[in-house]
Design a protein that fits this description.
The complex is a heterodimer of chains A (539) and B (337).
Chain A: H1 3-18, H2 27-34, E1 36-41, H3 57-66, E2 71-77, E3 83-92, E4 95-100, E5 104-109, H4 123-135, H5 138-145, E6 155-159, E7 162-166, H6 174-177, H7 188-193, H8 203-208, E8 216-222, E9 226-231, E10 245-250, H9 254-262, E11 268-270, H10 274-283, E12 287-292, E13 296-302, H11 312-321, H12 324-331, E14 336-338, H13 362-371, E15 379-385, H14 389-405, E16 409-415, H15 417-426, E17 431-437, H16 443-450, H17 466-481, H18 484-501, E18 504-516, E19 520-521, E20 537-538
Parallel strand pairs in A: 1-10, 1-11, 15-16, 15-17
Antiparallel strand pairs in A: 2-3, 4-5, 5-7, 6-7, 8-9, 9-10, 11-18, 12-18, 13-17, 13-18, 14-18, 19-20
Helix pairs in contact in A: 11-13, 12-14, 16-17, 17-18
Chain B: H1 2-29, H2 34-38, H3 45-55, H4 61-73, H5 87-122, H6 127-141, H7 144-158, H8 183-189, H9 193-230, H10 233-240, H11 245-275, H12 277-282, H13 288-297, H14 301-329, H15 331-336
Helix pairs in contact in B: 1-14, 5-6, 5-9, 5-11, 6-9, 7-9, 8-9, 9-11, 10-11, 11-14, 13-14
The chains are: A alpha+beta (539), B mainly alpha (337).
Chain lengths: 539, 337
């Protein structure tokens, strides 16, 4: 081919590429499309195994869909009729039968359950996996301990298809904790073959590939670009999923994700700005699901160990100076549940989250501040996590403006995401906004992490009160032995105390927003807030 | 020639050593604690310490540095914590994506900017001169992500001519077997013309975005240097000798005006390669720019160090190529060199 001819044909090709053929797919391609789910999101997994070092939240989604647990939650009808996981009802996933005794629970495994490589799932695998979860350290071990699952000795092989989990103490969170993402069952023989002396749990191997028995398996993963998952046709954990193939692409630009959805090229997306969700809801071309985070609250926290926020009156003054409604309207576009301004005479409920009784009242705030001995206000800084700047930044600006009206001058301190946890751990920031949500949806679980005197990282205010600890410990004990009356008193006690002392000011319960094409059905809300492909269908 | 190349490479060694030291120190000076970041949201202090130990960050700085250089000498760039992959492999996979995009963008840009600059210089003050000025000013003053978003909005969202901005290939095509890493070439080698078309149509918008941005320096430099050459004595002589305007401009003037243009090109190329992060973000392009930025945000040392080192090596090589090109275009440079 001569150079000139080549150039001609190349430019011809370029021209034809500019106007791609109309969307007529060859029949095979059209089929592939109708059985393929195309997800676009901002971030992707950094590790396919939730037991790995520093696995990020997108990695949880892979684990959830590619591994099975002994048990999972049943579904109930949630807000707006969307299926919502039922906190109190469980069904077997790998287990056929669950038998709860006084100090242990026994699981019978499904006989025909197989791993992706065809090996049968045995009690040995279950024990090895649970041992792994409590031994590898970091997040998985921490999550297991939340349900008092801490020692390998607690997991006992009864026979080839029966496993017993012994309780360390009576704890009503133990069984729910076996249904979270972490206690997934891993193909122990396969992973052991690929483990090394330095890496006895084979974390390096499972980081790159899935070795489970779940409904999907990862066939291709290019970090930061895409994950491709294929259905496991031998899955026995539940009804056969309708989606054959899942393509999950990372599209960093939010505007483009919206364009992809509106053009019909992508099937489903999340992590879009609230404004986009609100507009998409309004124009009705797509289905937008907005559901409250279970057991989650965005709040303003104050460090109670240092002046001026060690003074209750100052904290109350701030609580009366927060522009709650403005935050709801201008920052969240209404996509959140308000957690403020409950009527004065409303009795405290045995539930969490529930709204407190503070509301915006600048005069009252000024008076309280004067009573506290700061008639002219003071100066402080308000910090937030830049990773969630989309919400945090406008929120802090509104709070700054409002606090200025009562004389509190604030400087905004933007903390890079990589640094946020270090800063939280130091417990030195005087004023900040943050969000906490618990996987396990129980009031005492939330309070144990956020208000208890053992001062966990989530007790960001360093709040310590013996009275509070008594209520929280009391509620945990009462829940374990099923003493409802004592439990109700204690829950009401710690909620009332948290509102009276306001070390942190709850603002709202955030929503998880998911936008999808009209032909996509079967979205389910899970405590982890990621997608469950197994129930989804297209067309 | 070979001695010159050898000499140039020798000169590059101290700067590379400098780059290794500086990037190492800079990444350690970054705010943020990778151990706390990777320990996860619910980590206790002990868990953070466990992770710190695992990552080797509890050792003295000097020991960390020697371990790092030792690994480098063995071709090991370390592991990225955010993506969980070896940095060397990731850079190898991502560099061709960036290079393909940048080269194509630069080619488009040259194809427009050089004729435009030459025409503007031969007819100063005419409409074509004004056109040159307006397009280049507009191109350079629009931020790349903005141009990119506008192009996506018009050609994808409104008109539907362009494919979805989803990276290098349509979702339903599979990547060709890697030979060069350039999809345009690899698809042709694999004789997969459908995939070639897909790869090309994915490239058009991002390449145009880059081209628009890089028009200005090339066109302006061509114009300025052509103007200088056109007013020089030898051009006057050539014209007086009755040579055709085409011969004067192309053979005599343009060749002499090339040197500064080539220098500008090399700068624009290296700049585009590293700085097209925004274009990569807009078009979900799996290039090295977005990789490095993501790593930086999460205090992930290894990829940042690997990226800076790769870029340094690229700069050295690029400078070498430019110097050789100088010699080809202008024999005088060769003599002096």
């Amino acid at each position: 081919m001569k150079r000139r001819d080549f150039l001609k044909s190349a430019s011809g090709l370029a021209a034809s590429a500019m106007v791609p053929a109309p969307a007529i797919w060859s029949p095979a391609k059209a089929d592939a499309r109708s059985e393929t789910l195309l997800i676009v999101s901002e971030g992707g997994p950094n590790n396919l195994d939730i037991h790995g070092v520093g696995t990020n939240v997108p990695g949880y989604e892979v684990s959830w869909n590619c591994y099975d647990r002994l048990i999972a939650h049943e579904m109930k009808s949630g807000p707006g009729g969307v299926p919502y996981y039922d906190r109190d009802r469980f069904k077997g996933e790998l287990a056929d039968d669950m038998n709860v005794g006084d100090m242990s629970v026994t699981f019978k495994l499904k006989k025909n359950a197989k791993f992706h490589d065809g090996a049968p799932v045995t009690a040995k695998d279950v024990k090895w996996s649970l041992d792994r979860a409590v031994s590898v350290g970091g997040f998985p071990t921490f999550q297991m301990s939340a349900g008092s699952l801490t020692k390998p000795e607690q997991f006992v092989i009864v026979d080839d298809s029966t496993v017993r989990v012994d309780f360390a103490t009576k704890d009503r969170l133990t069984i729910p904790d076996l249904a979270v993402i972490v206690p997934c069952v891993v193909n122990s023989e396969l992973v052991k073959k690929n483990a090394s002396e330095k890496d006895p749990w084979g974390l390096e191997y499972t980081k790159q590939q899935t070795a489970g028995s779940g409904a999907y398996k990862v066939t291709k993963w290019t970090a930061g670009t895409e994950v491709i998952m294929e259905r496991n046709d031998a899955w026995v954990g539940g009804p056969m999923p309708k989606i054959k193939r899942v393509i999950w692409r990372m599209v960093p630009q939010a505007g483009n994700r919206r364009a992809l959805l509106e053009r019909g090229d992508a099937d489903i997306s999340y992590e879009l700005p609230f404004k986009d969700f609100q507009e998409m809801k309004a124009n009705g071309k797509l289905d937008v699901v907005s559901l409250p985070f279970s057991n989650g609250i965005q709040y303003i926290g104050m460090n109670v160990t240092k002046p001026p926020f060690d003074n209750l009156k100052v904290r109350q003054a701030v609580a009366y100076a927060i522009p709650y409604q403005k935050i709801m309207d201008a920052v969240l576009f209404g996509l959140a549940n308000p957690m403020f301004g409950a009527p004065k005479d409303k009795p405290t409920e045995v539930a969490w989250p529930q709204p407190h009784k503070y509301f915006t009242d600048i005069e009252k705030a000024k008076a309280l501040l004067a009573e506290a001995g700061y008639p002219n206000g003071f100066e402080t800084t308000i910090s937030f996590d830049l990773n969630f700047a989309g919400v945090n930044e406008p929120l802090c600006v509104l709070v700054q403006e409002s606090l200025a009206q009562i004389g509190i001058k604030t400087t905004i301190n933007k903390v890079p995401g990589a640094n946020w946890r270090t800063e939280l751990n130091k417990k030195e920031m005087p004023l900040f906004t943050n969000v906490f949500s618990g996987w396990l949806d129980y009031p005492e679980y939330f309070f144990y992490w956020c208000y208890h005197g053992n001062n966990s990282v989530f007790n960001t205010m360093s709040y310590k009160s013996p009275e509070m600890d008594r209520f929280i410990d009391g509620a945990r004990k009462a829940a374990a032995i099923g003493d409802t009356a004592a439990y109700d008193t204690d829950v009401k006690g710690f909620v009332d105390l948290a509102f009276a002392e306001v070390p942190r000011i709850p603002l709202y319960q955030p929503f998880v927003n998911v936008a999808m094409q009209k032909n996509i059905s079967g979205y389910q809300y899970w405590f982890h807030r990621r997608l469950d492909y197994r129930a989804m269908a297209k067309g | 020639m070979l001695t010159m190349i050898g000499k140039r490479l020798m000169f590059a060694i101290p700067s590379l050593i400098g780059v290794v030291i500086v990037t190492f120190l800079l990444t350690r000076a970054l705010p943020g604690d990778p151990a706390a970041y990777f320990a996860g949201p619910a980590a206790t202090k002990e868990a953070v310490e466990q992770i710190r130990k695992k990552l080797g960050l509890d050792r003295p700085l000097i020991e960390q540095f020697f371990r790092y250089t030792n690994d480098l000498a063995h071709g090991d760039f370390g592991n990225s914590l955010t993506t969980g992959q070896p940095v060397a492999a990731e850079l190898r996979n991502r560099l061709p994506a960036s290079a393909e995009l940048t080269l194509l963008g630069l080619l488009v840009s040259i194809a427009i900017a050089i004729p435009l600059g030459v025409l503007a210089a031969t007819r100063p003050g005419s409409w074509i001169d004004h056109l040159c000025r307006v397009t280049t000013t507009a191109g350079v003053s629009l931020p790349v992500f903005f141009t990119g978003l506008v192009l996506v909005y018009i050609f994808y969202f409104q008109l539907g001519w362009s494919p979805a901005p989803l990276g290098r290939l349509d979702v339903f095509y599979s990547a060709p077997p890697t030979v060069t890493g350039f999809y345009l070439i690899d698809t042709l080698i694999a004789r997969d013309f459908e995939a070639f078309r897909s790869a090309l149509s994915q490239l058009i918008l991002p390449a145009t975005t880059l081209a628009i941005f890089s028009l200005a320096p090339i066109a302006r430099m061509t114009r300025a240097s052509m103007l200088a050459v056109l007013s020089s004595d030898f051009v006057r002589t050539a014209r007086a000798s009755g040579l055709s305007p085409g011969t004067v401009i192309v053979t005599y003037a343009f060749r002499n005006a090339m040197l500064p243009v080539i220098t500008t090109l090399s700068m624009v190329f290296s700049f585009l390669l590293g700085a097209n992060v925004l274009v990569e973000k807009v078009f979900a392009w799996p290039g090295i720019g977005s990789y490095a930025v993501e790593a930086l945000i999460s205090s992930d040392f290894a990829p940042v160090q690997g990226f800076v080192l790769t870029m340094a090596v690229m700069y050295v090589l690029l400078n070498l190529v430019i110097d050789i090109l100088y010699g080809v275009i202008d024999p005088r440079v060769r003599l002096e060199g």
